[in-house]
């Protein structure tokens, strides 16, 4: 009987807290969204599963001696996992459209206003009782507006590890929701005739330019904004592996083995931050709200900058492509294409939107570097 | 601990252990039957959507054929240019 | 001359102990069995090589500063390697036959009796002078009867790391010997007419049921037996990656890159536990004896439960498939098929045996959880 | 820190931050245009050499056709022998 | 304004030292050589990029909390990365030519004289003010003559981590320069008639001999030179994975996933040792000089031993193949083939040069073991 | 240590080192020849069994043709059912 009692005391039922049960439900919801709704399944499925495992009572899987806790310690506390994923993203990304038309970097810059506006928004929430976001918290939340998973996880793990779970979930959820969030804003801010603008074909980009591109970005980053060097460096390292043409083996490893394996580990580890005390509170609601705000503002400022460029160039730029400046590669570019087709069945904007789209990745890495320099070290 | 104590504890462990293993798996049989019944009732023979997203962002809700055609066209066109 | 003396003192010859030389021979034997006899080569070849490297005098490859010692520290002491392999096994396993006929879980349960009977057997050996197995040792030895490599390594690394080498060798060796061990027992316990029973074809299993299966197992495990949650969780995570259909990249990574790389590392690391003082003693003989016993008893109780189910269902179940309940996937199921064919050339039992076969994997993970809860924490 | 202080700091951060982001990316536009001009001027439309080395040593400077032929011949011959 | 000042103080420009700027240039040069000149791009590209990242001011990427610094700590300080690469090299190498004609091991032995001569050379440099190489430093520099990247990195990380950057750069650069360095020496030391010698076709090597080969090497190494056991053990483990024919999954993992991923990490980590204080000094010039010397001497002694063997065998050995004994697989063997063809358009020496070529890998692992035993432990 | 001491030690190291390298590789030549002779004598030209097991369990000793046929048949049949 003693054994049976011991066993009962070791069951989940005898040890469950309400919070754990709820968080297991949250994990299940994330997996449901991943599978049934195709919400960023590569990340949300492991995150959801990690949440279930780490909220299992007694087992301590997310604790310092548990498997997922150790993975978190090794891969996320150190920042290595998001950086390796960024290397893979660099190896997977074709910056050709951006090199062909560098001016689209302006769109990628404008869309980052969503980040800084959200920072103010997070600070403003402190006026409501129950919210107490520090500057570091506000910066971590704001980066959701960057629409870039690894960047958000990297910054949040540095500035506000406690909020990491909610921030990662918000970032990936809103990226999945880009096809719902962006179109109304895009339509509201542009006229039918603007949306019908056809753009010139992109010029050819030579192999040499592709190889020099990572160095151009890197030199600026190293000299002016070294705090962005880890993120930007790994992104450009991956891209150089891809474009150099002499290290195909390594490029393939970065695009496949490394990014796949790290994604599994990163997802599980992020899930360990989905604990009841850190997630089931009013702050998470605030983060979800602010995240949506960030995407909306970023989309709007991107489109507005598109309109400015349209004016300045005498109608050569379709303002819709500004919406792709939030990044969320390649989803936002596809949304631009789709909204454009609604106004003109023969106007394929996809390639033109890829420029601002990848510019947005660089833009939010720059923004992350600034926030690290001014908030992290400050 | 003497041998007889240890052996008795082992016996106890055997009894409790086998009971739990069998109980757990019988419970699982029940749950699986429930699931099967539920699926038969509420979701009989769904046809799988078969969408396999590329990395790093999913195929998303955007799946109308026109888009796919457009993307393909754009990519083909772009590649052609790039090669020239 | 001083240099030459220094060099001589650093040779293996000057430092060999008999034990090391013998263990190098044991390593060579394992590799021989792996290559010439195809005894689980994926594990036994690296284990054998690890044993040779770690018994090299002076070099200290298995020590705290040696390569293999560090791999052991990082991957096995933490339990991470067997868990990652279990994730891969989950991604490689088709649970369809089990979902189609859940009653075969009873066969998987019955075969676990081999584990608990062996536990008593290990304790009984203490009556013989020279044996002094603690309860934790007995539990680690008993899990050999689970016929599941990663489960055995996981449990032994938690309860009795000193016995890990012998236990892993015994577990994989007997799994390789399943085609020799099981048939006589199966024939002895069944009649010709029983062996000729044809079973109904398995029903179709829908995609949704396959996706829900990991959650069904997980919910029971989390609520009732959290100590089995790491093993079962990773097994079911791997299976969900496989069945969800939305994360093929990750599923492939779990089935290939991760499991292959981890298998190499795990094998080498387990080999480091094959040292003379830990392996060349009478306890190892006991472990080998008990391991054989465990397989025999598990096979027998599985078949007996098969006979019971045959009776209860009025002859719809071929008792032979009970033998597959020990797991040793997919070898045991193939053995069932082969023995069945001896009695009826047209009776293919393979698919029917896959149900109890994968049920055995779940069964021994449950048993491992119980042993961890009652012996490990106790 | 009082709310107004914090908010003011946030405002400052916003101003400085957006300025830097825009400045950085405008600089990058300039650099990319310079690079494009330089490439157009000094290395117009190079034809890529397309050499992809095997592991672990590169194909090296040795690229005359005769060698390639020789290696192929030798390998074929050797394989033939080995198979027999 | 305060924020702006803070930001300025965090820029690279405000913090650059001359040394860092120069080292970033060195990194760029390495990448240029890798891409434009195809100098061992698989290693030199990541090394060069690592140098750029780790010389970024403020960011501390190569420091104890930076990504690359942590990778160095985990992978190179422990010796694990070069050993894993050696395992991959073993899995990629066909030792058939060596097994068919074991006497070519003599050529691989003779070429190692480059190592020991360079050791004396390094010590002699101490006569010049500004040089102060310890015996450990001299040994690390000397191993460049082994013409084997992983061996050099392994030994240098054990004996002189401070010199690791310069040594790795020298080793890989000279390996890339083998087609320029070797031919003049080969032509100077041989007569036209010697270069025209045609060699007998290699005998067939059975599968069993291929499987026994790793054990033959291993047994000698374990009994006589255990300090070479980590390097030789992993090389032979990889080769056994390849030749055993029963673990194809693991062999492919060693040849692809593991070696590719580790190469990326190793390259970046070695780059972190390219700091101004460690690289921009007269010692580096000495190392580059000595490295060239090592390659020249190794080539010469290899060819001379080839001449001896030619004499002894009555003209059955083409002395040119001795040059392949420095290893630098497969470059040196190709160079032999090319020089041979200059004298006789129909004399393909490639396969005959593969024997000494892979013998050189074994030879320098033996030399590394000796240096570790006599200098490292001494 | 003075330079001459260091140099002398280096010389010694060179002598000992080269001796060992050469000795080791000569020994290896001997061993390889022994192995070759032994193989020629006791296992001339074996025909390799060529079995490559799937993960995680090996193909085992069970290799009669009938089984393979049975497995194939069963798998095909099962797959067919599952697809319907
Ligand atoms: Na962005
Ligand atoms: Na089992
Ligand atoms: Na060498």
From TrEMBL, chains A, C, E:
- Source domain of life is Bacteria
GO MF terms on file? Answer: decarboxylation-driven active transmembrane transporter activity; lyase activity
Keyword annotations for this protein, in alphabetical order, are: Cell membrane, Ion transport, Membrane, Sodium, Sodium transport, Translocase, Transmembrane, Transmembrane helix, Transport
User: Alphabetically, which GO biological process terms does the record hold?
Assistant: sodium ion transport
Its localization reads: Cell membrane
List the EC numbers from the record.
7.2.4.2
> What GO cellular component entries does it have?
plasma membrane
- Residue ranges annotated as transmembrane are 12-35, 42-64, 70-93, 105-128, 134-156, 163-181, 211-237, 258-276, 282-305, 356-375
The protein's annotated catalytic reaction(s) are:
oxaloacetate + 2 Na(+)(in) + H(+) = pyruvate + 2 Na(+)(out) + CO2
InterPro entries referenced in this protein's UniProt entry, alphabetically: OadB_MmdB (IPR005661)
Q: Which cofactor does it need?
A: Na(+)
Please name the top-level EC class of this enzyme.
Answer: translocase
User: What membrane topology term does the record carry?
Assistant: Multi-pass membrane protein
On whether Cell division is a keyword of this UniProt record, the answer is no
Where mainly found? membrane
NCBIfam families for this protein:
Na_pump_decarbB
Assembly behavior: Heterotrimer of an alpha, a beta and a gamma subunit.
Q: Which family does it belong to?
A: Belongs to the GcdB/MmdB/OadB family.
Task performed by this protein: Catalyzes the decarboxylation of oxaloacetate coupled to Na(+) translocation.
* The protein's name: Oxaloacetate decarboxylase beta chain
From TrEMBL, chains B, D, F:
The reactions it catalyses are: oxaloacetate + 2 Na(+)(in) + H(+) = pyruvate + 2 Na(+)(out) + CO2
Task: Decide whether keyword Transmembrane helix is in the record.
Answer: yes
Instruction: State which residue ranges cross the membrane.
Output: 12-35
- Keyword NADP applies: no
Which EC numbers characterise this protein's activity in its record?
7.2.4.2
Required co-factor(s) are: Na(+)
**Which cellular components does GO assign to this protein?**
plasma membrane
Name the InterPro entries for this protein: Na_pump_deCOase, OadG
What are its GO biological-process terms?
A: sodium ion export across plasma membrane
Q: Name one GO molecular function term.
A: oxaloacetate decarboxylase activity
**Keywords tagged on the record:** Cell membrane, Ion transport, Membrane, Sodium, Sodium transport, Translocase, Transmembrane, Transmembrane helix, Transport
Quote the Pfam families the UniProt record gives: OAD_gamma (PF04277)
Q: Enumerate the subcellular locations listed in this protein's record, separating them with semicolons.
A: Cell membrane
Give the primary localization class: membrane
| Membrane association type | Single-pass membrane protein
User: What family does this belong to?
Assistant: Belongs to the OadG family.
What functional role does this protein have? Catalyzes the decarboxylation of oxaloacetate coupled to Na(+) translocation.
Q: How does it assemble?
A: Heterotrimer of an alpha, a beta and a gamma subunit.
> What name has this protein been given in UniProt?
Probable oxaloacetate decarboxylase gamma chain
Origin species, per record, is Marichromatium purpuratum 984
């Amino acid at each position: 009987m003693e054994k049976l009692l011991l066993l009962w005391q070791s069951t989940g039922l005898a040890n469950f807290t309400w919070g754990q049960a709820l968080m297991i439900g949250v994990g299940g919801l994330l997996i449901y969204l991943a599978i049934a709704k195709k919400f960023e399944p590569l990340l949300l499925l492991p995150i959801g599963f990690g949440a279930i495992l780490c909220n299992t009572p007694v087992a301590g899987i997310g604790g310092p001696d548990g498997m997922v806790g150790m993975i978190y310690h090794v891969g996320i506390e150190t920042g290595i996992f998001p950086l390796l994923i960024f290397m893979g993203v660099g190896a997977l990304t074709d910056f050709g459209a951006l090199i062909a038309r560098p001016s689209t970097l302006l769109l990628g810059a404008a869309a980052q206003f969503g980040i800084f506006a959200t920072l103010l928004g997070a600070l403003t929430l402190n006026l409501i009782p129950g919210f107490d976001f520090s500057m570091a918290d506000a910066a971590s939340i704001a980066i959701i507006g960057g629409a870039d998973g690894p960047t958000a996880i990297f910054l949040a793990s540095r500035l506000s590890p406690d909020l990491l779970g909610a921030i990662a979930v918000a970032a990936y959820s809103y990226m999945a929701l880009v096809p719902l969030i962006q179109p109304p804003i895009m339509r509201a801010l542009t006229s039918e005739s603007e949306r019908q603008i056809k753009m010139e074909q992109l010029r050819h980009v030579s192999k040499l330019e592709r190889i020099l591109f990572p160095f151009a970005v890197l030199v600026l980053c190293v000299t002016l904004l070294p705090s962005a060097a880890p993120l930007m460096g790994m992104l450009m390292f991956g891209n150089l592996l891809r474009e150099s043409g002499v290290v195909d083996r390594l490029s393939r490893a970065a695009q496949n083995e490394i990014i796949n394996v790290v994604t599994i580990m990163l997802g599980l580890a992020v899930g360990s931050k989905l604990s009841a005390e850190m997630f089931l509170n009013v702050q998470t609601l605030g983060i979800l709200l602010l995240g949506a705000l960030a995407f909306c503002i970023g989309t709007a400022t991107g489109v507005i900058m598109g309109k400015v460029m349209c004016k300045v160039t005498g109608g050569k730029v379709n303002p819709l492509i500004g919406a792709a400046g939030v990044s969320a590669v390649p989803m936002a570019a596809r949304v631009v294409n789709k909204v454009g087709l609604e106004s003109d069945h023969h106007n394929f904007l996809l390639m033109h939107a890829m420029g601002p789209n990848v510019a947005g990745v660089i833009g939010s890495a720059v923004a992350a570097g600034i926030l690290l320099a001014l908030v992290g070290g400050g | 601990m003497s041998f007889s104590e240890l052996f008795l504890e082992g016996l106890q462990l055997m009894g409790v252990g086998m009971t739990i293993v069998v109980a757990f798996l019988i419970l699982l049989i029940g749950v699986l039957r429930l699931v099967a019944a539920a699926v038969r009732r509420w979701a009989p023979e769904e046809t799988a959507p078969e969408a396999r997203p590329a990395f790093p962002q999913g195929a998303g809700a955007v799946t109308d054929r026109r888009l796919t055609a457009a993307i393909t066209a754009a990519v083909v066109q772009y590649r052609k240019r790039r090669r020239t």
